[in-house]
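name: query_chain
kind: protein
chains: 1
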Amino acid sequence: MNRVAFNEITKDAVKAAFKEPRAIDMNIVDAQQARRVLDRLVGYSISPILWAKVKKGLSAGRVQSIALKLVIDREKEILNFVPQEYWTISSTFKKNEQKSTFNGDFYGLAGKKIDLTNNDDVRKILAKIDKKQPFEVTQVIKKERKRQAAAPFTTSTMQQEANKRLGYRTHRTMRIAQSLYEGINLGKGSVGLITYMRTDSKRIANVAKQEAADFIKSEFGDAFAAHNPKNFKNDGDAQDAHEAIRPTSAFSNT
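structure:
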């Protein structure tokens, strides 16, 4: 008996997987059995307590219970936080009679940063400023910044980005990702558009890197393609069972 494994539901990926079936790895089987036992030891013990004490239909498990503990610990830190008062001074400036303006914030005096912790601190600074006198820009610093490409999506970072940019809740993000993974009908049958969406890995398959480089070359020219693609390091506790979430193809799937 052999096992066929693939990370994306596309015609080429499935055919390639069947060409290279692999032997059953009993370590993986044992790991699955261990998870199954833990689900029952934890879930079967705690879920009835939730039904009796909180609400019918709730469930607990080896993952949910730990995640809830982390949320509770974080909430306690937030509740125990002692806020500190701080003030700022902001102003709008205009050069001579020009219409354009720019904003500036108070930093300090004589190049030394000063923290404003109350209203009295603010009043003391304002008393030293002669609003009738012109302000002088003594230094302008221009810098070029190089921004590194973000790491490929893991499940967690995909959910965070979807929430930040689109306002999606986790459930909606995962529902959409599931449908993209299982396949969308693009006119020639259903085809998977992204790789498996439950992963903690930042690894990208070499074939996907090469295809991305080929796409960039064809669209923008060789100068813009990465000849030595960056490899992102996984977190220390990453299982790396599946590669990062990515499009199944940089080119059209139609």
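note: The radius of gyration is 28 Å.
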